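Kindly draft a polypeptide, keeping tokens residue-aligned:

***
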Amino acid sequence: MSREGSIRIIGGKWRGRLLKVLDAPGLRPTPDRIRETLFNWLGTALFDARCLDLFAGTGALGFEALSRGAKHVIFVDKYPPAIQMIQKSVQVLDAQTSCDIVRASAINYLNMLKEKEEKVLDIIFLDPPFASNLLKQSFECLASSHLVNEKTLLYAEAPSLLCQQDIPSHWLLLKAKMTGEVAYHLIQGRPPA
């Protein structure tokens, strides 16, 4: 049985609201300090943005985006208890009309979106388990899709700093920072050549 913890929304219309989250092995909510930096980086790009919170886990990034003006967030996670907790948070915040919650493997979901000819996404949050190859797989899948264009911003967490050579060649690494054991990055996407 997994325990519950909580996260605090740090900015926007839900500032200060506490949301219950799953306290399970491998689930790392993005710390307040890192979220503050990330959302300062994003700034006005959040307004009316269509976001994808891949590997949503606690949903911290997606809920923070909604609080700060994003129009819509798709939360994707394959772990049923995490999905159930995100659903509860959506109800607590009365945010049903601005969210989709999908229980699926991240890579399968991206492949399904590619086939459906979905619209371009404005912001994509990528916070996969560090002990996996999922960040690289996600980059590869997104880089060859129509979901990313030159206006798409991607946020990626990793156990060490990435450099330009670690991301698809037609994307641009805008910012990178390390806090504690988390490296985080802001990347500008571009469509495939």
User: Anything to note?
Assistant: The chain is about 25% helix and 25% strand.
